[in-house]
Amino acid sequence: MTAPRTVLLTGAAGGLGTLMRDLLPAHGYRLRLFDVRPVEGDTGDAEVITADLADEQALRAAVRGTDAVLHLAGISLESTFDKILRANIEGTHRLYEAVRTEGVRRVVFASSNHAVGFTPRPRGDDPLIPIGTPHRPDTFYGLSKCFGEDLAQLYADLHGIDTVSVRIGSCFPEPRSVRNLSVWMSPADGARLFHAALSADTSGHTVVYGSSANTRLWWDLSGARALGYEPQDDSEVYAAALIAQQGELDPDEPAHANLGGPFCTDPPIWPY
Length: 272
Hints:
alpha/beta; seven-stranded parallel sheet; 7 strands
């Protein structure tokens, strides 16, 4: 498919949404911004809609006339099940219903590595974690991302809506922890990956991992590369300073043993 012209960006006031609304227009997109919170700062010529995903009429109006949706909205850390249910599970279902009703054919869903968080992380010469890894959520948040991926599969099979689910590691201007050195995705690479996912000639439901081409990479990026993604950045430039401050990961520590890191502890340890 050719690159869509108009993309609905949900979660536009959040951290990742703020980064993407600044970077995606350079890839040829006109953005329509959607968030329950006011979108602050420079929005260029983007249309801004302040509404909740629970507002079905507002959501349908936001989806209407777009070429694709980049769905970043929702709670991005662990919370109570009731809050995760409302924002991430019910909200994503309402988004897909609006997409189905309005005839939009492409969604890019912000999934997470926490959908498979209890997968042991690679050590030494272990192979990279493959995209076919079964769901092993580490939190209610991770569980909601499993639901989103399965919902995308259902709507692909039942309604012909194409989705690329991107299991994001972390996307900050710089990695914040030694763990981040393995899962970090630079904002510029994030925009490259979302552009590839929005424009790739693919159908059905596709799951890929999302990170930069990190020296300490834990997972297989071949699925993302097959979409046309060419990461340009590597977290290794930040490694010396982070390791000097925090030390190397200890495989005997519960917070370091699995892909989900400190999300795999009870309670989860912040920051991660």
